[in-house]
Predict the 3D structure of the following.
Amino acid sequence: MKLGAVLPTCEIGSDPLALRDWAQAAESLGFSHIVTYDHVLGAEHAGREPAFWGPYTEHDDFHEPFVLFGYLAGVTSTIEFETGIIILPQRQAALVAKQAAEVDVLSGGRFRLGVGSGWNYIEYESLGADWERRGALLDDQIAVIRALWDNDVIDYASEFHRIDRAGIQPRPARRIPIWFGGYTPAALRRAARLGDGFTFGDSGPDTVALADRLRELLAEQGRDPAGFALEGEANFGIGPERWTALVDESRSAGFSHFSINCQSTTCEWGGNPAANLQSTAEHIAALETFISSVR
């Protein structure tokens, strides 16, 4: 099983040297990949209808994933990069295809594009995207992105896109893996039809049950579930005994990847103990504690 580290984007700050040090530490400790979350905008929660329920507010820092990974590609050598997840329907498909290709080119093929539909309807509105039709748009975006990666020029027409004999350069040397994320039946069905893998933001019996359901959906699509990658995640605040149990359970359930999230904001929102890590050095020490516990 490959072990990953979630970038503590809300807590690590904006010092590029801190980001470099954290990423290089993760690489030197033997982590296979870095995961980062995506929000373009944070919004105030109070006074919203419908209620605004997500864990992040206007006060939380979010490094832009493609720019971040372009930077980290230049200060690392082997560690892979995963968006967990890019909220695809609020972004332009052709631009995402271009940005993802650039990260993959600059990193030497170390990029994995994780996508999903998200939960932040304020962000959709602010970016001029259609919240109500995000699922149908996401499906079409996957087709557009893969066509742009695979061909020098495409002529593509659909309800959502028109690309008239155009393409992106440079194109990636391979078709970048596209993973999906989420918890809903729609997310699982979409992944079974279109995905190369699935990243769950949690682990445990409920997550294993969702993975089993995803395997059933893959079989219904005529796809081999054994070749489909799965990733679980744990919060640092639950402690080493629980980490080890969850990693072992995920490995036994056939998961290929597992990541540790040391970010207190996410931990507390999910009802887990906060990691309470303050400095970059403390976040690096937490990575070392985790990987030495579960190897």
Notes: The radius of gyration is 19 Å.
